[in-house]
Design goal:
The chain has four helices and no strands. By secondary structure, the protein is mainly alpha-helical. Helix 2 packs across helix 3. The longest helix has 49 residues. The protein is elongated.
Length: 132
């Protein structure tokens, strides 16, 4: 950082940090990052790149996509041993997931009601056709 005259970590883009981190990952001291079960450091960092890219470019993202990005953020925070932020993001993800499930259930209920109403209309039309 000093060689590039960066005075603080925020002076560099996240995508540059991930590249630098990957480049020097093997030379970092063991306590610097917590291994994540089933994921390489590259996979952990890639998740943060997707999150940043979507936010910076304001990409439309599905609720499932947001949940996935939040999971990536949790994994990243855990890898950095930042349990406080990991817990906060986990809480947000849990609340969002509950809201999404509630909305999906409500949509399914509305679809069932609509289907029942359309079937009733079709039945009444058939009755009217018979009366003609």
């Amino acid at each position: 950082m000093a060689a590039r005259k960066w005075e603080e970590a925020e002076s560099i883009e996240l995508t540059q940090w991930t590249k630098k981190f990957l480049k020097h990952a093997k030379s970092l001291p063991l306590p610097a990052i917590e291994p994540v079960l089933g994921k390489s450091i590259a996979e952990v960092l890639f998740g943060t790149s997707i999150l940043r890219h979507s936010a910076v470019h304001r990409l439309p993202t599905s609720a499932t996509g947001i949940l996935s990005m939040l999971s990536a953020a949790i994994t990243f925070a855990e890898a950095l041993k930042d349990n406080e932020r990991a817990e906060k993001v986990f809480t947000i993800r849990t609340q969002l997931k509950a809201s999404v499930e509630e909305i999906v259930q409500h949509q399914n209920l509305l679809k069932r009601k609509l289907t029942a109403q359309l079937e009733d209309i079709a039945r009444r039309r058939a009755e009217l056709d018979e009366l003609e």
